Amino acid sequence: MNFNRHLENIEVYEAGKPIELVVREFGVAPENIIKMASNENPFGMSPRVAEAIAKNSYKGYLYPDDSMYELKDALAKKYSVDSSEIIIGAGSDQVLEFISRAKLNSSSKVLMNGVTFAMYSIYTEQMGAEIVKTDSVEHDLKQFQTLAEEHNPDIIFLCTPNNPTGDIIEKDNLLNFLETVDKNSLVVVDGAYMEYVKYSSPDSYIEPKDLIEKYPNTIYLGTFSKAFGLGGMRVGYGVAKKEIIENLYKVRPPFNITTLSLLSAIEALKDMEFVENSIESNFSEMRRFEEFADENGLDYIKSSTNFITLLLPDGYNSSNLSDKLLRVGIIIRDLKGYGLNAIRITIGKPEENSRFFEVFKKIL
Amino acid sequence: MNFNRHLENIEVYEAGKPIELVVREFGVAPENIIKMASNENPFGMSPRVAEAIAKNSYKGYLYPDDSMYELKDALAKKYSVDSSEIIIGAGSDQVLEFISRAKLNSSSKVLMNGVTFAMYSIYTEQMGAEIVKTDSVEHDLKQFQTLAEEHNPDIIFLCTPNNPTGDIIEKDNLLNFLETVDKNSLVVVDGAYMEYVKYSSPDSYIEPKDLIEKYPNTIYLGTFSKAFGLGGMRVGYGVAKKEIIENLYKVRPPFNITTLSLLSAIEALKDMEFVENSIESNFSEMRRFEEFADENGLDYIKSSTNFITLLLPDGYNSSNLSDKLLRVGIIIRDLKGYGLNAIRITIGKPEENSRFFEVFKKIL
Fold it and tell me: Which of A40, A51, A250 sits opposite B12 (nearest CB)?
């Protein structure tokens, strides 16, 4: 049977390994497994949200309010934008999908950083469009500008802080770059980890209205998966001028987030204290990772997120190390697939990090 | 800004109105609203499932096991197929999306019944493909055969029981039709309401293995949204030969159902008694709707689902009637958009149906 030909060589996204798999494949008891691979909030979700889900669990039989009126209203107030400038996705990931499907076809080009979130390439390939990448690990906006002028891309993906490296694009640099971009190129500013920047590098903290008012060809993406601790609930959003949002709505399926996800995101926005406390712990633990790296002669990329990327010296292989950790129940992310001899580790709770340091030291 | 041109005239799916909207727009108290528009199970979900969600609510911070090992294993056992022959979607709706994206392009054609589930057209339009429809309200497989020979469609959608009419395709007719179909046409057999057929018309009950073994160009779709009472959790599935499933996987985003949705579907399969009891009540209440229609001189389509379609006589307007019901808190589905002067009503609990009869009689 024939399928769309451009799908033939598509790579499938390799997700961080779930706890269930480590139990099944290596026989590690679930209570001995630490998941430091998928950048979930190690403190889970706000107790207030967990309680709201538990209390309303029976409502899962009803389709959600597909207008998402209340959630869009809460986000509109948070960001001082209009509800019509917001679209909700099953994770900001689904908004990436909407963008690709609305904007790309087989003659399109897409520009992104050399090392960046894998789904940008995958969605581009799904549309049969051409990928243009810089050769940089951290965003090099000069290269972006040169390549944008040369290729006239339909979409430009900027990820700040960048996944899987954790570094930020400085706000001034970003805004200066936007001045140079052709108005028909849609610039995606993926702020999945932006809440962490507010704490670690407030000068480079970006909100949607910093972008979309002056640069109507931009869309800002945010998510409840990271700082808000709702990774498994699948809720994210895009903020852009109404013209863009309306076009994304044309490829949005109805009921694209669950009834309990909608409710949990609305509730999560009411407990910013939980988010702030998680972030505070995150950066005090981040210091421990930096010290550990320094003490053990490992390089790392300075991170404004809830993960840290350790660059391995010659003689070490990121895949071997990741595999050894996995067998004792510590799940981290091997970055070999991103062309780096490096591992990405989600900052855990203090006791989880201590166990990581102890085990990792023995394995090194 | 330019977007894909074929999206310009796309219609957006009109979802059944949520309770929240009726509260907001008409000021009806939530406890006085009966939702009979979206074919949810009026008994909600199995208490066992609601309890499992409540107990595990805090786990929503973790991404789900993206292999969906346990759910696929349970479905594989239920249907005597292999796990590799199953793909999970956010509702069977998302599997429809995967099918369209994997199989269609702007030179494709798609064949479907004159009156059928609206998302078939919408996903086809999203891909810029051409829609060919029979002129029938109930599936006319002779017309399907003629049109298939003439147009050589890439996808043929069959919906049994059909939404929004409730009638079934007889199993023998369906199998005979499959004999005539070109092997490169993918035949989608959408069995979203199939659990109800097992009870009402067992001779036409279809399981995936009835189709895919002999006709490897078919895919069966099922859902947890209807008889299992998990509409708001967004879990459905497709069952087909591995070659087809592998191609659909190429456009599946990672983590496409939530952690709690995965858990709830696994749990729901363990309580078939709840499903059977819901279906038994459904059909005894269906008899009351049929009697009500007979007594009031209304025609209806014999239904094998959890809804009934009432055809309105001249002088009545389905949109006016739906609007009048809405203002007193009874949400039903106007079928004007499907080209029918008819309304579709989800079979409710006995007391909900009694209220519907009472109010509707006054309005008629």
Answer: A250
